[in-house]
C-alpha cells in the first residue's frame, strides 16, 4: 500500500487510516509505503502504529517526496499549481516514475477508514484484464456525473512504466483543465489536481481503466454520494463498508459532532438491507 502524507496537518488522518488497516487486516504481512512531503517525516514517524504485532508482520517504508521532481513532470505537461497542497495531489500521478522499485500499489489518501480486510481490496488486482492498468472510481458507476475519485486507486505501476502512462497527461490537461497563457506559453490549471489528469486519460483511453466497486470509496461529500446511496444506485444489496472516504469535511470536528456515528449507523442499515435481501 502507498499513502501520500505530504501536506501539513494530515498526520491525525493518517494515524486513523493506518490503525484501521492494522485493525481490519488478517494478512500475515503488510508493507506500507508512506510518501512524506517537506518536513512531514518526523511528524509521520510519531504516529505510526507499533510494528510489533502478535499476528501481523508490519513494515513501514517512509519515502521522501522531492517537490522539484514533481514540478519537473508538471512543467513537461504544461500544468501549474495554484495552491501549495496541490503538489502532493499531483504526486500521485507520477509515483510510478518516482519509485521504480514498486510494481503494484494500492494508493490511498489519508482521509480514509477501512471497514473491511484490505486483502479483499488487493484481490481487485486479479480483476484487471488485458491493458487495464488503473482501477479507480470513475463516472461509469455514477450516472450523469462526470467525475473520478483518486482517493483509492489500484496502480499497476510496472505496466504504467512499460506503456509510458504519463504521456497521456498532457492531452488530458489540454481537454479537462483550464487554459491560461504566461509569457507566450500555454499552461493549464487543474481545479481538482491529479483527478483532472486521471479523469482525462479515462475519457480518452478508457481501456486502461477498470472501475472500482463503489463500496471501496464511500464518499462523505454530499454533492456526490453522501449517505443516501440510492440517489445514485438502484439497489444497495451488494454494498458493504469497504472504505469510508471522509472528504469534504474536517474529520476531527465532524467526528466530535456525531457525523461519523451517523455514517456508521447508515452503513449498518445498508448492511442489514443487504443481508435481508440475500436471505429473503
From TrEMBL:
InterPro entries (UniProt xref): Glyco_trans_8 (IPR002495), Nucleotide-diphossugar_trans (IPR029044), XXLT1 (IPR042465)
Matches recorded under SUPFAM superfamilies: Nucleotide-diphospho-sugar transferases (SSF53448)
GO cellular component, one term: endoplasmic reticulum membrane
A Pfam family it matches: Glyco_transf_8
Membrane spanning residue stretches: none
Gene Ontology BP term (one): protein O-linked glycosylation via N-acetyl-galactosamine
Gene Ontology molecular function: any one: xylosyl alpha-1,3-xylosyltransferase activity
PANTHER family noted in UniProt: XYLOSIDE XYLOSYLTRANSFERASE 1
Protein name from the UniProt record: Uncharacterized protein
Protein species of origin: Potamilus streckersoni
Amino acid at each position: 500500500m502507498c499513502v501520500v502524507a505530504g501536506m501539513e496537518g494530515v498526520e491525525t488522518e493518517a494515524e486513523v487510516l493506518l490503525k484501521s488497516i492494522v485493525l481490519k487486516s488478517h494478512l500475515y504481512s503488510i508493507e506500507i509505503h508512506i510518501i512524506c512531503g517537506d518536513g512531514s517525516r518526523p511528524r509521520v514517524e510519531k504516529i505510526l502504529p507499533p510494528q510489533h504485532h502478535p499476528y501481523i508482520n508490519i513494515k513501514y517504508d517512509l519515502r521522501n517526496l522531492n517537490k522539484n521532481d514533481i514540478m519537473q513532470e508538471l512543467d513537461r505537461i504544461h500544468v501549474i499549481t495554484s495552491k501549495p497542497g496541490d503538489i502532493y495531489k499531483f504526486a500521485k500521478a507520477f509515483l510510478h516514475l518516482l519509485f521504480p522499485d514498486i510494481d503494484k500499489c494500492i494508493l490511498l489518501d489519508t482521509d480514509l477508514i477501512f471497514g473491511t480486510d484490505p486483502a479483499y481490496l488487493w484481490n481487485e488486482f486479479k480483476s484487471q484484464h488485458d491493458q487495464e492498468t488503473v482501477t479507480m472510481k470513475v463516472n461509469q458507476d455514477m450516472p450523469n456525473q462526470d467525475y473520478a475519485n483518486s482517493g483509492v486507486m489500484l496502480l499497476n505501476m510496472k505496466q504504467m512504466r512499460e506503456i509510458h502512462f504519463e504521456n497521456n497527461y498532457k492531452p488530458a490537461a489540454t481537454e479537462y483543465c483550464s487554459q491560461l497563457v504566461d509569457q507566450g506559453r500555454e499552461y493549464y490549471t487543474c481545479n481538482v489536481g491529479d483527478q483532472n489528469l486521471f479523469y482525462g486519460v479515462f475519457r480518452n483511453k478508457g481501456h486502461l481503466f477498470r472501475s472500482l466497486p463503489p463500496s471501496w470509496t464511500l464518499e462523505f461529500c454530499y454533492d456526490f454520494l453522501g449517505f443516501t446511496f440510492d440517489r445514485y444506485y438502484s439497489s444497495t444489496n451488494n454494498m458493504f463498508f469497504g472504505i469510508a472516504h471522509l472528504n469534504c469535511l474536517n474529520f476531527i470536528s465532524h467526528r466530535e459532532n456525531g457525523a461519523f456515528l451517523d455514517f456508521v449507523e447508515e452503513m449498518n442499515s445498508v448492511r442489514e438491507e443487504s443481508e435481508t435481501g440475500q436471505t429473503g
